[in-house]
Specification:
Layout: H1 2-26, E1 37-38, H2 44-47, H3 55-68, H4 85-91, E2 95-96
Length: 105
């Protein structure tokens, strides 16, 4: 009975450790950008470093920019599905809008 109990204790300990690792991986916060990201030139990967921006929203930003031209003000991001006023306020310290070269379309 002692060997059976030891196996159960080991299994429970293993489950707890694995569960903790999975939880921390899923809910780990991403490293925020140290410099503001220019939303007129940022890649999808760069946009994904912004708080609250995942792959779908990053892709939507780039697609919108390609269709409509460069962003003129940060509030233009509100046209993107998934970006609300509160999300925009969280993004504000991490994004910038710089002019785009006339050669870039």
């Amino acid at each position: 009975m002692t060997a059976f109990r030891s196996r159960i204790e080991i299994a429970l300990l293993l489950a707890a450790v694995l569960g903790s690792l999975c939880f921390s991986t899923v809910f780990a916060q991403k490293a925020l950008p140290t410099q503001p990201i220019n939303i007129n030139t940022a890649t999808i990967a760069q946009l994904e470093t912004l708080p609250g921006i995942g792959p779908n929203t990053a892709n939507a930003i780039v697609n919108f920019r390609n269709r409509s031209g460069p962003f003129r003000r940060l509030e233009d991001l509100l046209a993107i599905k998934g970006i609300s006023k509160s999300k925009l306020e969280k993004l504000r310290p991490y994004v910038s809008i710089a002019p785009v070269n006339s050669e870039h379309k």
